[in-house]
Specification:
By secondary structure, the protein is of the alpha/beta class. The protein folds into three domains: about 20-265, HUPs (Rossmann fold); about 285-400, Anticodon-binding domain of a subclass of class I aminoacyl-tRNA synthetases (Four Helix Bundle (Hemerythrin (Met), subunit A)); about 410-459. It is built from 16 helices and 15 strands. It has helices at about 40-60, 75-80, 85-100, 120-130, 160-165, 205-215, 230-245, 280, 285-295, 305-325, 340-345, 350-370, 370-390, 395-400, 410-425, 430-440, and strands spanning about 5, 10-15, 25-30, 60-65, 135-140, 140-145, 180-185, 200-205, 220-225, 250-260, 260-265, 265, 305, 445-450, 455-459. Helix 15 (about 410-425) packs antiparallel against helix 16 (about 430-440). The longest helix is centred in the N-terminal third of the chain and has 20 residues, at about 40-60. The chain is elongated and about 90 Å long. The model has no long low-confidence stretch (mean pLDDT about 95). The chain binds one RNA strand through helix 1, helix 5, helix 7, strand 12 and helix 10.
RNA sequence: GGCCGAGUAGCAAAGUGGUUAUGCAGCGGCCUGCAAAGCCGUUUACAUCGGUUCGAUUCCGAUCUCGGCCUCCA
């Protein structure tokens, strides 16, 4: 079975064939670090982490680059408001971002380039584009001249007439064509800037990705990913810059875009204010439950984030952890391979919901298996498959004790009450035993009497 | 206006031209002091209207509804 990927460029699923199977290259647009990331920003991080994991399994060398945009007008504004340098604002939110996504069990990318470390590469690319007649300088700006590229718009399926008809912004007087976009813009004294042949200025948004990809991955890469809202104009403009700077050479073989997260079926976005930060969500549930929620829908479909979303994911994971807990004393078989059904689901354009259902099938099989060799095998498969997907990395017993806050009963308090209940049960004082159980339940603690003693979990 | 996507049972969510998705919830049974958990069984589906077909939720066409991009945005 080979990896199938839905390519935005062709709007079809295609067999993935890397340019060089000794070095597979993938790039994903990362965050602009001017505040905490929200759950919508976390979706591509988790989705492409899953892809990275699949690719690493199939190819010996996968170079995964995910950038950080650390210069941008929103960062500039935040820095100005706080009276600090943009590097301080960016530094603070990069750390927060790293912490937040680590909680989702995402692997670090191979390279994490920062925009401000690549100003000279950007200047070089602009010089090339100007030389080749694809860009021009005007009033301190450098602009990409869209009509200089014959097939501009192929990713988003637009043509120039559409764009002019749909233009909702005033066209700046220095633009030769309404569709031209900014590569470089001048900075006044109070704004961060870098010296360039066109004066002191700062880069436009699209240029950094083209420059960093060229530097770290090459002129043509295998996979480029990001959210659907980046298709136009961001990725379209990246294609324009890179393809034109490289004499028409193909920029990206496979474009992949994840759907957005919605709230009440409306797109979550920072500018609309209808968003939940990942940090807030992580206070309500374990990171794995958040990861599960993101993987429980197919990456190309919209995912509505509602009140029950986390709860449902937590319950589904509880079931998997329960199977592991029931098999706690079963030794795990050595050298167990990834179960084929799980791998096949993931290879089919990352069908994570199907892969997760296979995890449940393994849990059911493990729960009902009677013989030890079979149990060892199934437990191993569940762990291998789950951990491949970045799940089931916790100790099962600890998982059920997860608590959103430190209020309420401590683990020791609970154990003490359970002890009292055990005594009551031994004395066949079931009224007292049930009373204690009800008291605990009122505090969100559920009990299970098993052969190995009484177990408890937090709801 | 142009382009793109979605509509599956109470909820979430896969998938398929004819056979159980899966999880949560519900119901019945086993188990249990009673529960819980687990196991077994089970009830609710494929927006609407046409067409193709022996047969369509699945293919084709139309319609309706919802959402997104065209401007910073994952």
């Amino acid at each position: 079975m080979s990896l199938m990927i839905h390519n935005t460029l062709t709007r079809q699923k295609e067999v993935f064939q890397p340019l060089d199977d000794k070095r597979v290259t993938m790039y994903v647009c990362g965050p602009t670090v001017y505040n905490l990331i929200h759950i919508g920003n976390a979706r591509p991080v988790v989705v492409f982490d899953m892809l990275f994991r699949v690719l690493r399994k199939q190819y010996p060398n996968v170079v995964y680059a995910r950038n950080v945009t650390d210069v941008d007008d929103k960062i500039n504004q935040a820095a100005k408001d706080n009276g600090e340098a943009i590097a301080e604002v960016a530094g603070r939110f990069v750390s927060a971002y790293h912490e937040d996504i680590a909680a989702l069990n995402t692997l670090p990318p191979t390279v994490e380039p920062f925009a401000t470390d690549h100003i000279s590469e950007m200047i070089d690319m602009m010089s090339t584009l100007i030389e080749l007649g694809h860009a021009y300088a005007a009033e301190g700006h450098v602009l990409f001249h869209v009509p200089s590229m014959a097939d501009y718009g192929k990713l988003s399926g637009r043509n120039q007439e559409d764009m002019i008809a749909g233009a909702r912004v005033e066209v700046a007087p220095y633009k030769r064509d309404a569709a031209d976009f900014v590569l470089w813009k001048p900075s006044t004294e109070d704004l961060p800037g870098w010296d360039s042949p066109w004066g002191r200025g700062r880069p436009g948004w699209h240029l950094e990705c083209s420059s960093m990809i060229e530097k770290h991955l090459g002129e043509t890469i295998d996979i480029h990913g990001g959210g659907q809202d980046l298709i136009f104009p961001h990725h379209e403009n990246e294609i324009a810059q890179s393809q034109c700077a490289h004499g028409g050479k193909e920029y990206v073989k496979y474009w992949m875009h994840n759907g957005y997260i919605t709230i009440d079926n409306a797109k979550m976005s920072k500018s609309e204010g209808n968003f939940f930060t990942l940090r807030d969500i992580l206070a309500q549930a374990p990171g794995e439950a958040v990861r599960y929620a993101l993987l429980n829908g197919h990456y190309r479909k919209p995912l509505d984030w509602s009140e029950g979303t986390l709860e449902q994911s937590k319950s589904a994971l509880d079931r998997l952890y329960k199977a592991l807990e029931l098999a706690a004393d079963v030794t795990v078989s050595d050298g167990v391979e990834m179960p084929e059904a799980v791998m096949a689901a993931l290879e089919d354009d990352l069908n994570t919901p199907l892969a997760l259902s296979e995890l449940h099938a393994l849990a059911t099989a493990l729960n009902s298996a009677a013989e030890l060799p079979e149990k060892s095998q199934l437990k191993a498969q569940l762990l291998v498959a789950g951990q491949f997907m970045g799940l089931l990395t916790e100790n099962a017993a600890e998982w059920f004790k997860w608590s959103a806050n430190s209020d309420g009963l401590s683990d020791a308090d609970i154990d003490a009450l359970i002890e009292q209940r055990q005594t009551a049960r031994k004395d066949r004082d079931f009224a007292r035993a049930d009373e204690i159980r009800d008291e605990l339940k009122a505090q969100g603690i559920l009990l299970e009497d098993t052969a190995g003693g009484t177990k408890w979990l937090r709801e």
